[in-house]
Write a structure and sequence with these properties.
Blueprint (H helix, E strand, L loop, with lengths): L2 E7 L2 E7 L8 E7 L2 E9 L11 E7 L20 H14 L11 E9 L6 H15 L9 E8 L2 E4 L3 H5 L3 E7 L4 E8 L2 E11 L3 E11 L5 H26 L18 H10 L1 H10 L2 H17 L1 H6 L3 H23 L14 E5 L7 E7 L2 E11 L4 E3 L8 E3 L1 E6 L16 H14 L9 E11 L4 H14 L10 E10 L2 E6 L3 H6 L2 E8 L2 E9 L6 H27 L10 E6 L5 H5 L4 H10 L1 E6 L4 E6 L2 H22 L13 E10 L2 E6 L3 E6 L20 E10 L2 E9 L1
Parallel strand pairs: 5-6, 18-19, 29-31
Antiparallel strand pairs: 1-2, 2-3, 3-4, 4-6, 7-8, 7-9, 9-10, 10-23, 11-12, 13-14, 14-15, 15-19, 16-17, 20-21, 20-22, 22-23, 24-26, 25-26, 27-28, 27-30, 28-29, 30-31
């Protein structure tokens, strides 16, 4: 018999329908918010895997029919998941994985189908809450509800669970998941905003021209603002999680009778290692590089397995290797907590050595090789036009969207010393690239008719390659001559907690990520945070520890930015590789004259100046590109002249005033151009005083002699139609 649970919390109502569909799954719910409906299911195999890990798979799938659409393209059915679906699956996985009991090793799949979409509903939050409910209500022994909360900042006020419309006006997108007393995952990005002001300027009395002024804000968050937003999210999560527990507790299925893998442990082996191999493991941890450390520990485990004691006691190689790993973890954590020193000898707040090289690839538009310790990212940038943007669909929108700033992250096996096959980017690669994009995007103001693609090739990895991508990406943009508002740097923070002791670590390496309790990535400019990502392994984290981590990250970021600023000052552009480009605005009504009949005029421009010309009628933007800067500049001048002639032809014709050669007049300088100055003559006629007529000696700039508003005495040299040529007698 199906039943319905309504949860009213945090500015919205969610309706959960149980035992209505997918009844053969371990757990299933239909969750509804407004007109959005998602089916969340959990299925479990009965046979445990042999390996010691949790075999959990999460798949979030958007169905096109949910938005009354037929899939685009040649194949009219859903195929490979899009980036949003993959990233949402990853978020749900990271949020729910910590809930499973220790030793649970049954292949488990969580599947979410979006069956009906609503443009005003946050599908990511609804999917997370539906997945958590299906898992909690299933026969799998999970005793906590996870809640997802999104926080926006609209008009400087924080808003919990904003509508899609509110999020479009927001300067913050913060997504947090957790249980009643624990934050499990954080994703945050600052959103740059634009404000447009239209100013009317009177010209020639009755007519008026509109001057549009646009201001842009990066909207970085300070540490204090970030903590406030996280506190608001934490309170909302606690309230929602309690409401879910109250609503679902009586409906939970009886727990299945499952066996759990006992943790490989043997106190006598740990005692044996401590007695006879303590120094060897300490040396492996303290003295070896990452690639050598794993090999060194493996050799120690093999040596122990050959010992007479191990042979007599019957200790297996797997058990010994596991115990060596546990002992190594104890050594690493003890060094940090008791000695305030890390495996590579650094202090807790110390950033590894940084080396930066820019534009090392001569045929690439720009590049940056960013090396921090044993982590190395080669970031290459390519510039393109609007046609190079990545088209993608949003389920609730009928029209396609275009991504004209892309960050693609690649992680080949050789970066960690492995001979693994090269595969298409997986969830990790997409997630790291997305984090770097969120960090960098607020720093650039990219026109719609331009595209930037950053590709980060991780050549070596020992902790925080995504943050190396942020640093390298920010400098790669500067190395292409792109004027980003501020440089952006990223750093990964860690945490080690034992009883009442804890330590916050700056710039963690792989060993500290693996054996620590938190991975906390913070990216931003000198003025605040642009992106943040946190995964917490130990459960909850209090505000004071979080504040300490943010402040320590701010210090590290400032240190890294200082090094990046020095590298920025030494950049030499790849002039031979960079495209010559000029972008300017014209009245769209003049585009017909530029194009010409059947495109004849624009074709001549392209052939004569060896350029490409792109006209955006909607925005009135003209873009000219070519390999030669002089040719591009000449083409732009020619196009402006065509547009000017078109405008002049539309003006009502005035009765032509005739001047005689040799006449002398007093006039005022009205306009100054590169080739001369226009002087107002009687009857409102503008005469041209060419730069060559300003002085008997060569004049480089008109402004060396005249300025707008100057009074001059001029002589009529010649008149050809409306064009009146002047000579300068004297400046009055």
């Amino acid at each position: 018999m199906s039943c319905e649970v309504k949860i009213n919390i945090n500015n919205k109502e969610e309706i959960f329908e149980l035992d209505k569909v997918a009844k053969q799954a371990s757990g299933a719910v239909l969750v509804r918010e407004k007109d959005a409906v998602i089916l969340a299911t959990v299925a479990r195999d009965d046979q445990m895997v042999e390996e010691d890990f949790l075999p959990l798979t999460v798949n979030y799938i958007e169905k096109s029919y949910a938005a009354a659409k037929i899939p685009g393209g040649y194949i009219k059915r859903e195929t490979k998941p899009g980036d949003f679906e993959t990233l949402t699956s990853r978020i749900i996985d990271r949020s729910l994985r910590p809930l499973f009991p220790k030793g649970y090793a049954y292949p488990t799949q969580i599947v979410l189908f979006v069956l009906s979409a609503d443009p005003e509903v946050d599908l990511q939050t609804l999917a997370l809450n539906g997945a958590s409910a299906a898992l909690y209500l299933s026969d799998i022994p999970v005793d906590k509800n996870v809640a997802g909360v999104r926080v926006a900042r609209v008009d400087q006020h924080f808003v919990v669970n904003p509508t899609t419309s509110q999020l479009q006006e927001s300067s913050l997108d913060l997504f947090v998941t957790g249980t009643k007393d624990e934050l499990l995952m954080i994703e945050m990005r600052a959103i740059a905003t634009h404000e447009t002001e239209v100013i009317l300027e009177p010209i020639m009395g009755e007519n008026a021209a509109q001057s549009v002024m646009t201001t842009r804000e990066m909207n970085e968050l300070s540490d204090e603002e970030t903590l406030e937003a996280l506190q608001i999210a934490g309170d909302a999560i606690a309230e929602a999680s309690a409401a879910y527990e109250e609503g679902f507790k009586a409906l939970k299925k009886p727990e299945a009778e499952l066996e759990f893998k006992s943790e490989l442990s043997h106190d006598s082996i740990m005692d044996y290692i401590d007695e006879f191999y303590k120094e060897e493991i300490n040396a492996a941890v303290r003295e070896m590089a990452k690639s050598e450390r794993a090999s060194g520990l493996s050799k120690i485990a093999k040596t122990i397995a050959l010992d007479e004691t191990a042979q007599k006691e019957g200790w297996s190689s797997e058990l010994i290797s596991n115990m060596v790993g546990k002992y190594k973890k104890q050594v690493v954590r003890s060094m940090i907590l008791d000695e305030q020193i890390r495996a590579d000898g650094r202090g807790l707040k110390e950033v590894r050595d940084i080396v930066i090289e820019t534009n090392i690839l001569p045929s690439v538009h720009s590049s940056c090789l960013f090396t921090r310790g044993q982590t190395q990212a080669l970031v290459a940038l390519t510039l393109g036009d609007g046609k190079a943007a990545q088209m993608y669909d949003v389920l609730s929108d009928k029209d396609p969207h275009y991504e004209n700033f892309m960050v693609h992250y690649n992680f080949p096996g050789f970066s960690v010393g492995e001979a693994s096959p090269l595969r298409p980017p997986g969830r990790r690669e997409l997630g790291h690239g997305n984090l770097a994009k969120r960090a960098l995007e607020p720093s650039i103001d990219l026109p719609n008719n331009e595209t930037i693609r950053l590709v980060s090739e991780i050549l070596e990895s020992n902790g925080s390659s995504s943050m190396a991508t942020v640093c390298g990406g920010s400098l790669a943009m500067r190395a292409a001559g792109i004027e980003s508002e501020k440089l952006v740097a990223g750093v990964a923070m860690g945490l080690v907690v034992e009883d009442d002791k804890y330590a916050v670590l700056t710039d963690i390496m792989g060993l500290e990520d693996h054996d620590g309790d938190m991975d906390f990535k913070v990216a931003g400019s000198c003025d605040g945070i642009t992106a943040l990502q946190m995964d917490i392994k130990l459960g909850g984290i209090d505000q004071q520890t979080l504040k300490e981590a943010l402040l320590q990250a701010s210090e590290a970021r400032a240190h890294i930015l200082d090094i990046m600023e020095k590298a920025n000052s030494e950049i030499v552009l790849n002039e031979n590789a960079l495209p010559a480009r000029s972008i300017f605005d014209l009245d769209p009504s003049t585009f017909g004259a530029i194009i010409g009949q059947a495109g004849a005029t624009i074709k001549k421009i392209i052939e004569k100046f060896e350029v490409s010309v792109d006209l955006d009628k909607e925005n009135g933007t003209v873009k000219v590109e070519g390999s030669n800067k002089v040719q591009v500049s000449a083409a732009c001048d020619h196009i402006r002249e065509l547009a000017s002639q078109k405008r002049e032809s539309r003006k009502p014709k005035k009765e032509q005033i005739q001047f005689d050669e040799g006449q002398v007049f007093d006039g005022e300088v009205k306009r100054i151009v590169d080739f001369g100055a226009f002087i107002e003559l009687p009857g409102g006629v503008d005469g041209l005083l060419h730069i060559s007529k300003l002085s008997e000696e060569r004049v480089d700039k008109v402004t060396d002699i005249l300025n707008i508003g100057d009074r001059v005495k001029v002589k009529i040299l010649a008149q050809k139609g409306h064009k009146v040529e002047l000579g300068l007698i004297e400046k009055l």
